[in-house]
Specification:
alpha/beta; D-Maltodextrin-Binding Protein, domain 2; 5-stranded mixed β-sheet; 4-stranded mixed β-sheet; 13 strands; 31% helix; globular
Length: 243
């Protein structure tokens, strides 16, 4: 099944919910354009909308709850309730902690975001050259995965890093205040983040890599308390939407 950076669930019709089943908690944090609380109280976005429509189509009761990304990882690890995180990458370490559905979203290429006036960094580089750039500080998010390929490259080249605990808007402010030089981000997220930042677009530049660096597919990452039967229903709905 090939996913594209558009919502693939729009045509799905809601199925009847099993009212006796305990609702699955869908944890999220505000992360435009993937997850955003809307004016009507619903959660929408590039990963939130497919997830919501997927649960409706599969007839599985759910409830949204907001939590920081680090807390979400802790909750999956603790396995105290049937819960899923929306739009997370898959890696071997995470697979030990929980269960994954089939992909719900495939993003665009990964880019690096920096300031336009940063003379250390060009507009187009290889990932290896960027990670080995002398004097350049990479900002990484605590307990975050950038996809298996990029995670492996960061481990290999071991660039000078700074760690952020907040969301991407906080990371953008760290760029503005020149506490770091760049961070990795999906292209669609970078464009929306710059647009809503309140700063002129000309203040920033995107580094597009000379070799394609595609994002990993994004999944629902669920606690082990989510029954296999629920994962199977969700996967079936995903597969149906992809045909």
């Amino acid at each position: 099944m090939k996913l594209t950076p558009v919502l693939v669930f729009v045509a799905l019709l809601p199925a009847a919910h099993d009212s006796a089943a305990e609702p699955i908690v869908l944890y999220y944090n505000e992360r435009i354009p993937y997850l955003e609380t809307q004016a009507n109280g619903e959660v929408g976005g590039l990963t939130a909308t497919p997830a919501r429509l997927l649960f409706q189509r599969a007839g599985i009761a759910y409830v949204w709850k907001k939590a920081p990304a680090g807390t979400q990882v802790y909750l999956i690890r603790e396995n105290r309730e049937p819960a899923c995180l929306v739009g997370w990458y898959k890696n071997p370490e995470r697979e030990k902690l929980g269960k994954y559905t089939h992909p719900i979203y495939q993003g665009l290429k990964t880019v690096a975001l920096t300031l336009a006036g940063n003379g250390k960094l060009g507009n187009e580089m290889t990932v290896a050259d960027l990670l080995q750039k002398e004097g350049a500080v990479l900002l990484i998010k605590e307990m975050y995965s950038y996809g298996q390929t990029l995670d492996a490259l960061i481990r290999r080249y071991q660039p000078h890093t700074a760690v952020a605990t907040g969301e991407n808007i906080n990371m953008l402010h760290m760029l503005i205040y020149k506490r770091t030089d760049y961070f990795f981000i999906g292209e669609e997220e970078a464009l929306e983040l710059m647009r809503r930042s309140g700063y002129p677009l000309k203040d920033f530049k995107l580094i597009r890599f000379s070799e394609p660096l595609y994002e990993d597919p994004r999944h629902l990452w669920c606690s082990k308390q989510v029954p296999d039967s629920v994962i199977e229903k969700l996967d079936a709905a995903i597969d149906q939407a992809g045909h």
